[in-house]
DNA sequence: TGTATTCATATTGTATACAAGGTGGTCAAT
DNA sequence: ATTGACCACCTTGTATACAATATGAATACA
């Protein structure tokens, strides 16, 4: 249901999505119509339709008579995210293993190749977006609209968080990143073999890894409370 | 994010939702802007925004340059529905038991009372809509936006299917209906007690009941294939 | 008779003008 | 000096005119 490809409207739609995912547009920041109109060369009517659609997909929130804002990420968001993600990701991977077409598997391999090379030489943005793309393809494979909407929303926030933990200057465990890449490879193998149980459990493993990275970001080791429990043993 | 309450725009939004849920607007039927404009006394700009929003929530689908249609229900839809529903419903009920506020529990009791009386003396529409309302409240209780979007979409189709199996002329097992009502009562009790395991398993039971009703609708007993397996034992 | 092409019509998409509401600042009164 | 109301400006919401695209019928051709 995205606007027709190639049009100015679609350009605006894609650009906004990307800008939000990459944190170029910050969570909670306000979006003024006139600014965006001049930026994308659209009049207000189609621009508003783009915002309406982005709102429907969870990228932005609309406030009556007070314009649009990039949807924000609070610690509440993060908690909700932690609860829903393992459930949805494992269900998606199970269905992906059941339903993937050969063309989709081929797409996924390309996406994984892009992710791998982004881990080696790419920017933070490259890493976050190629990872995002990988998981969206698994969503397409699962081919279940009811779960897809949930995955889409999870990926919005997952990718925004990833923009932080893929940051190279944190130097946080390059081992973790290559482990994530290896898990992607395993997922492809499980999907190609139609092994749904393995695919589902890989999703959980992959999620656990992400969760650890997120915890590192939310609660950096350097700031551990002297008498508190270790962050890595924090109860999920 | 619904339009501001009380406005003509909101009226149109609510009326369209209701008309789609009750099958007054048939799945797949086309929605012409000018017709709706005169019907709701809106100009095309705000009406199109209503359609955009309904599209974002899965009630309608927009086709570029070819207008909007009520989102349709095919056998593919139904299969996807069967796969996703138990997962999402049980997760929602578990979270509802964890998070429900007293005010929400009170709302739920009211909704259940309305459902019960609709089963006794109400129309098909009353039954379907009060049941819908009950489950949407459990979704609010769960308070997880990632899962909520999925529940919302499931309920659109669940309610539309229910418009068929709540039909009194089918006389299909009045016992089943009162059983559904009793399960609602049990759910309320589990939520009020904060018993999340029980709430989750009740969701699965409740779903199994719904599924049987849906199967009866999709594959009526009178048309069983002579050599086929029994519909009630159809593998999920 | 069947098929392709073209044009008239209807419907959707976009721009712009106007209306309504919200924000922030100034000024007055206590 | 602080607080309140008022007013101007700015942003969003709606209506309408115009442009672009699809649809279907009529016609010409094979």
From TrEMBL, chains A, B:
Superkingdom of the source species: Bacteria
Keywords carried by this UniProt record: DNA-binding, Transcription, Transcription regulation
Record bears the keyword Transmembrane: no
UniProt cross-references to InterPro entries, sorted A to Z: GntR_C, TF_FadR/GntR_C, Tscrpt_reg_HTH_GntR, WH-like_DNA-bd_sf, WH_DNA-bd_sf
HTH gntR-type domain ranges (all copies): 6-73
Gene Ontology MF terms: DNA binding; DNA-binding transcription factor activity
Family matches, as Pfam families: FCD, GntR
Protein name: Transcriptional regulator, GntR family
Organism: Roseibium hamelinense
């Amino acid at each position: 249901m995205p606007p027709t490809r190639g049009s100015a409207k679609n350009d605006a739609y894609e650009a906004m999505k990307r800008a939000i995912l990459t944190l170029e547009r910050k969570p909670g920041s306000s979006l003024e119509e006139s600014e965006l109109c001049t930026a994308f060369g659209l009049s207000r009517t189609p621009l508003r339709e783009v915002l309406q659609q982005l709102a429907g997909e969870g990228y932005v929130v609309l406030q009556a008579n007070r314009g649009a804002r990039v949807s924000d990420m609070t610690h509440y968001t993060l908690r909700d995210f932690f609860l829903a993600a393992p459930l949805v990701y494992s269900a998606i991977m199970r269905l992906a293993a059941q339903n993937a077409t050969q063309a989709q598997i081929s797409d996924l391999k390309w996406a994984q190749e892009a992710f791998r090379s982004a881990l080696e030489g790419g920017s933070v943005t490259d890493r976050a977006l190629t990872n995002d793309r990988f998981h969206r393809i698994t969503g397409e494979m699962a081919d279940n609209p009811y779960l897809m909407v949930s995955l889409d929303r999870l990926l919005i926030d997952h990718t925004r968080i990833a923009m932080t933990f893929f940051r190279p200057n944190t130097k946080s465990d390059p081992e973790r990143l290559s482990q994530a890449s290896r898990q992607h490879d395993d997922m492809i193998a499980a999907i190609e073999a139609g092994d749904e149980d393995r695919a589902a459990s890989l999703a959980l493993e992959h999620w656990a890894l992400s969760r650890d990275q997120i915890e590192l970001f939310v609660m950096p080791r350097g700031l551990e409370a002297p008498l508190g429990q270790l962050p890595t043993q924090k109860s999920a």
